[in-house]
Design a protein that fits this description.
This protein has a domain at about 65-210. The termini are far apart. Helix 1 (about 5-80) runs antiparallel to helix 2 (about 85-100) and helix 1 crosses helix 6. The protein is built from 7 helices and no strands. It is an all-alpha fold and about 220 residues long. It is rod-shaped.
Amino acid sequence: MTDKAMSVLRNFEMFSRTLLELVFLSVLVVAGVFAVPGCQKYDTLVEKDQICQQKWSDLEADLQRRSELIPNLVATVKAAANYEQSTLTKITEARASATSIKLTGDDFTDPAKMKAFEEAQAKLSSGAIGRLLVSNENYPKLQANGQFADLMKQLEGTENRILRARQQYNESVKDYNSELGKIRGAVVNKATGTPFKPRVYFSASPESTAAPKVSF
């Protein structure tokens, strides 16, 4: 092979390598253009999911506060009046049922588990506690008990906080589910291999979300 032919061959090889490098860099640039928004969208979904978890934790804190007040309430009622034992029994049983259901992980995407949680809370909120608040008027001695009156006010305030916490949780779920339902959110969801799942709204009955009325 002549020197001229060798030179042409070397030039061709250099040109080929340069062209391949340019193609490779172009592919990287294009991938980066699409990857950056995808990463941002993934981060957005993670952030909104964390907000949902935070709002749920706030709700659980209010539910826990109510649960801790109930034993004091029952003890006060027993000490202050010969109260209806069936009412106190139902309150104790409803509290045990409400605190036995804990939601974690995929439970928030399961309508059946969310419904079971809601029903347990409703039995305590609008059922057992509601009955106590309505029937306490038949016990003047109980109404005159300052500790009982204070507990009732605390329970009423707690029920109002629970209602607000439910609303805030649903607002965060709406924001998260809306983001997940967008085209880019769906693409990221598929690309990650660990899909984000729509959360279920807290949709308790109107009776269970109404704060009990306190009458003295």
